[in-house]
């Protein structure tokens, strides 16, 4: 904020940031005006018992009723578990594969068609396959999530391995660092930021794919409850759940933004 | 020397040289091992047939003329939705990027809707439109426009001030500026957005086309949340989807999740 005060001419550019609006961009809250207007109009002109567009005031009671039955906690827990475990697994597998593929050219060439094939498969199309193989289980959810979300981490780790500054490795040689020290002091720190970049891209993907799987298969989770609410024409509950999902997604986005700002501040300057 | 020799060679060997041999070999070996292991009885994957069985099933689908129309439907919905989403996303994005006032008074709303994982709109779309082409198109259009829109906003705002000044000097009108100055300068960013939204369109089309499945949870839900329903749309069990998907899931008892 202090820097923008000195350079009012670039304020518009600053607000967006060099890498897109999600990084360090704070559009003013006044921008919510159209959204609020929509909700108010909906509340004024809608009816409570509409099948498709129940008034916003009916959403909260529906969600409260849902929460009191304990279903909401189950749903949130289901989604949270898949999200966390999926993100961890995707990161681990992505980093290992990325390091292997990034350091050995032959392996890269060998695995490339296979990985590209898996990557091109839309996650929603993988769902039926893994439902058949694994059933409506947590492992099915995780498989689809990990198969989709590991690729950002893999690709970013691979390019990190490729683009590792050769001077750094020369420094290690000049200083006669042992192999352990070289990995600990040179390789890991220089890969760290590429891995984090991959994880940053993968995080929203994990959330979205988790919801896709849940909606398509109606396994326990936010998406599953949403899908069931739709099926049983509890439209207010469906809208309420969408609001909750949005809040969760916004929370994830904000968390990524904060981590990003803290870790990559030095790079942006 | 080598390049000349390559150039002198006929087309066939040159194409052959472009093929990623290790990659192809890996795939072939993978499928061969899978096939051999299954035939020898080393692995017995109940729901994962051999590659040869998958191939013959695919051939049967094509022969029955059940496959290509489905592909056509998916591709046409994806492309139509993507095209409409791109246009609307581009226009809204340009409005947001070029006018400070529009940006201030609506960007937060856009960010809010963009944060919403678009697939959660699927249940609402099904409610409102039923299982129809309209539902698929609406879902694709609503969700696939965000990447285009956001990248357009980005691209427009990052157009160098020098170019804008040129437009002012030349006394170009708003439309002219957008067409002749901003659009070319913002194009790289916009193209990135277009690519992202094409992938998203395909994912959402496939998700929207999937028939509802009966699951274990649905029964539990039905007993707990049984209320008078207003009206029922029949759940679609289309023959075009994977043939085993529907019948297997609807006819087998809930215990099917543990094969045995």
From TrEMBL, chain A:
The keyword Transmembrane helix applies. The chain crosses the membrane at residues 85-107, 127-155, 186-217, 237-259. It is a multi-pass membrane protein. The keyword Transport applies. Keywords: Cell membrane, Membrane, Transmembrane, Transmembrane helix, Transport. Pfam families: BPD_transp_1. It comes from the Bacteria. Belongs to the binding-protein-dependent transport system permease family. PANTHER family: ALIPHATIC SULFONATES TRANSPORT PERMEASE PROTEIN SSUC-RELATED, ALKANE SULFONATE ABC TRANSPORTER-RELATED, MEMBRANE SUBUNIT. This is ABC transporter permease. It comes from Thermocrispum agreste. The lineage of its organism: Bacteria, Bacillati, Actinomycetota, Actinomycetes, Pseudonocardiales.
């Amino acid at each position: 904020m202090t820097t923008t005060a000195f350079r009012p001419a670039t304020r518009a550019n600053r607000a967006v940031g060099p890498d897109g609006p999600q990084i360090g961009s704070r559009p003013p809250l006044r921008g919510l005006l159209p959204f609020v207007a929509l909700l108010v109009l909906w509340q004024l002109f809608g009816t409570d018992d509409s099948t498709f567009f129940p008034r916003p005031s009916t959403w909260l009671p529906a969600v409260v009723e849902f929460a009191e039955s304990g279903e909401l906690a189950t749903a949130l827990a289901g989604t949270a578990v898949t999200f966390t475990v999926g993100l961890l697994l995707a990161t681990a597998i992505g980093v290992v594969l990325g390091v292997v593929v990034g350091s050995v050219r032959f392996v890269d060439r060998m695995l490339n068609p296979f990985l590209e094939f898996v990557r091109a498969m839309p996650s929603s199309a993988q769902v039926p396959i893994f439902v058949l193989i694994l059933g409506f289980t947590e492992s099915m959810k995780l498989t689809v999530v990990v198969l989709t979300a590991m690729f950002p981490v893999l690709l970013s780790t691979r390019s990190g391995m490729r683009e590792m500054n050769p001077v750094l490795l020369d420094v290690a040689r000049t200083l006669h660092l042992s192999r352990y020290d070289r990995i600990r002091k040179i390789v890991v720190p220089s890969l760290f930021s590429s891995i984090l970049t991959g994880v940053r891209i993968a995080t929203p993907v994990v959330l979205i794919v988790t919801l896709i799987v849940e909606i398509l298969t109606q396994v326990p989770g936010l998406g599953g409850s949403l899908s069931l609410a739709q099926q049983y024409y509890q439209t207010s509950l469906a809208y309420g759940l969408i609001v909750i999902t949005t809040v969760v997604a916004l929370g994830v986005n904000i968390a990524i933004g904060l981590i990003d700002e803290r870790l990559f501040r030095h790079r942006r300057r | 020397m080598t390049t000349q020799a390559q150039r002198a060679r006929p087309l066939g060997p040159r194409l052959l040289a472009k093929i990623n041999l290790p990659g192809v070999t890996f795939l072939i070996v993978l499928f061969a091992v899978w096939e051999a292991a299954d035939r020898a009885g080393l692995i017995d994957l109940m729901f994962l047939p051999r590659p040869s069985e998958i191939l013959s099933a695919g051939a049967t689908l094509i022969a029955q003329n059940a496959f290509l129309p489905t592909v056509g439907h998916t591709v046409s919905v994806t492309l139509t939705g993507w095209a409409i989403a791109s246009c609307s996303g581009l226009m809204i994005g340009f409005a947001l990027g070029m006018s400070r006032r529009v940006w201030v008074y609506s960007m937060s709303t856009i960010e809010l809707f963009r944060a919403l994982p678009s697939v959660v709109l699927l249940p609402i779309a099904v409610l409102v439109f039923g299982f129809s082409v309209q539902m698929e198109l609406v879902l694709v259009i609503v969700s696939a426009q965000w990447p285009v829109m956001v990248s357009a906003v980005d691209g427009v705002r990052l157009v160098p001030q020098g170019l804008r000044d040129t437009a002012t000097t030349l006394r170009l009108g708003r439309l002219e500026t957008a067409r002749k100055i901003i659009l070319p300068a913002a194009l790289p960013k916009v193209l990135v957005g277009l690519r992202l939204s094409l992938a998203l369109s395909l994912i959402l089309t496939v998700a929207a086309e999937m028939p509802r499945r009966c699951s274990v949870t649905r029964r539990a839900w039905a007993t707990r949340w049984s209320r008078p329903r207003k009206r029922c749309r029949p759940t679609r069990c289309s023959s075009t989807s994977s043939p085993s998907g529907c019948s297997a899931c609807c006819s087998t008892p809930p215990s099917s999740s543990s094969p045995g």
